[in-house]
Amino acid sequence: xxxxxxxxxxxxxxxxxxxxxxxxxxxxxxxxxxxxxxxxxxxxxxxxxxxxxxxxxxxxxxxxxxxxxxxxxxxxxxxxxxxxxxxxxxxxxxxxxxxxxxxxxxxxxxxxxxxxxxxxxxxxxxxxx
Length: 129
Description:
With 129 residues, the protein is of the alpha+beta class. It has 4 helices and 9 strands. The protein has helices at residues 30-36, 83-86, 90-93, 117-128, and strands at residues 8-9, 14-18, 24-28, 39-43, 50-51, 56-62, 66-70, 75-80, 101-105. It has a 6-stranded antiparallel beta sheet with strand order 1-2-3-9-8-5. A 3-stranded antiparallel beta sheet has the order 4-6-7. The two termini are 16 Å apart.
């Protein structure tokens, strides 16, 4: 499985990409979308909502199940991927391009608690056993 090295990851299978403007783009991993199967709905937090690291903030729903998405970092939602409202299957097509929302981090030290690609790969390997 291809795990992009330019992203940070959580054990609950969210990814974070820190952008040049200081915002963080957030989505679910390829592994998560493979477990869930065909996406049929994505409930994304509204722009302006303040998130705390670790809180449930979104839901992705597939033909198999609904899964909570947890905020990997604290911050204010600054943008949402409105394409997913009418086309949630974009998550299945490319989980790393189909971001869910963007956050302006309120505590950049939250990023230090996230995993790099190598650490995330080890989590996936341990789940497989």
